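This week, study the protein below.
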Amino acid sequence: MPEKSLCAYAFLLIYAIGIGGFISGCDGGTHLKGIVLDSGHRPIADADVRLTTGKLQREVKSSDRGVFKVGMTHSPFNPELTLEVTKPGFKPFEKRFHAKEHLDSIVATLDPVADAQEPSSSPFSVSIVPGIGGITIAKNKPDEFYVVITNVSGVPQSIWQYWNSWGYQAISFELTTADGKKFVLSKKQEAFTVNFPSTFVVEPGEHQIYPIKLDEWWETHPALPKTDEMPITLKAVYEVSTTPEASQYKVWTGRLESHSYNFSLRLW
């Protein structure tokens, strides 16, 4: 190639590179590589990885080893970007950062989702045992039935005696009528002239039995409709509040519910 032509070619090549560099320099870019781990530092495969800024979005999946690569081209300024990592059964991971931080690698740790519906472990179970006459509510001589608290743990457990203020209202009932209306039956408030903490100890596999008479010392919220007899479902609730005395006497605290039982309720 003649010298003049060679010089002209070199000039054009340099000019083209300069123009190309200027054009590419008008855009910025962010490229990340990372790994997705669980709280035990084990790789999480097939997690959804999403990088976004404004309306731009890129999505990839983590590999069998938890590794991912994700990137995008964006404005040359300093936009805020968001990296999100999600996987069913885990809490989402989110990282916000700006392009000028030049973040290029990251470890995304996903914590497992706790099962909020899982009941806490209780040392007791609660059940209803009907008497001969079933369930009645009456001011005078209602039929007696029983609430049974059973120690299902492997160690002795202390519970409040029923006569003192700590145990007096521990047992209540949830009543549902055939039309779906719900009522709560509980002991009326009482002023105690003699009152001090006292407990029963229930041995493993043993029971504490409470005779129940729904008499004038019980009340319903709201008031039950006036009727001679009606079908109901009844659930016993055993609930003990956390108090300094409960801690001192090592009494179990919490809320237990029995199964729902079908009864015929008579109002006398």
